[in-house]
Amino acid sequence: MKSYPKIIGRILEIIREHKTFCIVGHVRPDGDCIGSQLGLALALRNEGKRVTVWNQDAIPLKYKFLVGDGLIEKPKRGEKFDCVIATDCASFERLGKVGECIGARKIFINIDHHESNTRYADVNWVSPREPSTGELIFRLLKVARWPITKPMADLLFTAVSTDTGSFQYATTRPGTFHTGAELVTRGANLAKICDEVYQSYPLSRAKLLKHVYSKFRLSPDEKIAWLWLKKKDFVRTGAETDDTEGLIDHLRAIEPVIVACVFEEVEPELTRISLRSKSAAVNVSEVCKLFGGGGHPAAAGARIPGTPLAVQRKVIAAVKRALKAAK
Ligand SMILES: [Mn+2]
Hints:
Radius of gyration: 20 Å
Number of strands: 11
CATH superfamily of the largest domain: inorganic pyrophosphatase (n-terminal core)
CATH topology of the largest domain: inorganic pyrophosphatase (n-terminal core)
Bound molecules: manganese (II) ion
CATH architecture of the largest domain: Alpha-Beta Complex
Shape: globular
Oligomer: single chain
Number of helices: 11
CATH class of the largest domain: Alpha Beta
Distance between the termini: 45 Å
Number of domains: 2
């Protein structure tokens, strides 16, 4: 067997020593988060462990096909776990309410690929060169020599596929394709996954897309595109916050645009920002760090208090500075 980082051996040792697990992920879970959490959960159950999977927010509709009955449950009040494992979560705060269950654990493991990860657990496996947490879980299972069943292959394939923009982002490496190939060999249903995740969305999302194209704004040099999503836009279109995933890519795709921003009203004086960069010289994770957020160099976010206009001014100014510095 090829050599592997010591941290993987350490994590497997901890897993073998313990019986009850809670696997948690970040707020507003995405495909990588859900696929990693549930893929790992199924593997641990196969090994005879008692596993609870818990997220603060509901699973978006398009990922529901991956979630078997009883796979996700809120722990009972006061329920204790030997070991808590967070997947795909860059900071303790990003766990949201599920952070509660951390208190009573014996040991806390953090498995993630965000470069901004704050290494908040007892044992931290953070590998920013990996394009998805799903690939880290895949490696863990390979090193452990645990079987990868068809449902696990579906979950991990979804994780890898969604975080690489379907194997398109610059983070995608030869190994990502090897992982994808092996998961398809193990039974991942490529057609079904792509159909559910990429090729179908509710009418409310189509209405939201109309809003994107009619309301986006451009900086005078056309290098920055931004869009506001206000609460009233959700009411008007019937869209859910889940429906916003990937909307930003429609701004990012505009040819002269280098940085795309989406401002989403969480509360009248609290805005969630998402940023995407098309240039390796513009690191939007650094921009988001200025506002207490983080993520990846090409995709990041933050939550910023203040009036909408003040937030927009601060963020656009910071993006402009990053663009200028990149010249
Ligand atoms: Mn991820």
